[in-house]
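Hey team,

Filing this mostly as a record. A colleague (T.K.) asked me to run one chain through the structure pipeline before their review meeting, and I want the input and output archived in the tracker in case anyone asks later how it was produced. No errors, nothing strange. Just documentation.

Input sequence:
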Amino acid sequence: MTDSLEKVELALSRLLVSDIINAKDMTVFLHKVRDNMIKIPKATYREKENRWMMTVPASVSSTGKRYPVYGASEQEVLRNYILQVEFKKGKKVPALEEYMEEYLKTYVLGVKEDTTYDKYYGCYKTHIKGSKLGQMKLNLITEEDMLDYFKERIGKQYAKSTIKTIHTILNRAFIRAKKKKFMEENPLEGMEIPYKKCVRQDPEKEILSYDDLKKLEKGIKGSWNCKKYFIYSPIFLVMAYTGLRIGEAMALTWSDIDFLTTLFR
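Output structure:
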């Protein structure tokens, strides 16, 4: 171990001198090697090719597949190996939760309704961030991982609507991740989720009757006549009589209203 560590330290010092890495990078990597968080495979000499070779394992590969790296000397191949597993230039595959933060801020916030962003971010924070799945690299997530994840959630008796929301968020994020070459395949594509096993079914939505609407209207108008100006009360009447959802109602502007016909444009 001592001999191997000395070789790694020498390789890192060469990278440091070449200004490829900084002192902090070097210290962190050495700690990982000492604590067996990173295992350095043995370099082998390929006599016919007159070069040294080391294999990058699938667990740290950016593609999820093992592949070889080469060098003219044992030190050179070790430096190349270190660059591939820890300091590879170009696109580094993020963990799911790291990518989800970027995805939601880039493709949902300011693009979809604010209420949609709040719903998606709350779902991500509750069900993905900090989970075993959330800490996995995108390129290592398989269909089996996703099926196990959803089975676990269903086993915890989450509502069908919650499972569907999680699926929608992840599927859209995976589609983007595939386009960015973080994943070779979308693990949710074609996967069937056992929704029928959801124990807690969503409650049926209640529709207000005409009498209910009149009671609501009377209560709101009565409060205003008594000078109890509940700031959001008018919006409830707008939603009740038009069928607008809360996000749509809150997004209304004066230009959306035709005061002559009393209609929304």
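Quick notes for T.K.: The mean pLDDT is 81. Residues 160-179 form the longest helix (20 residues).
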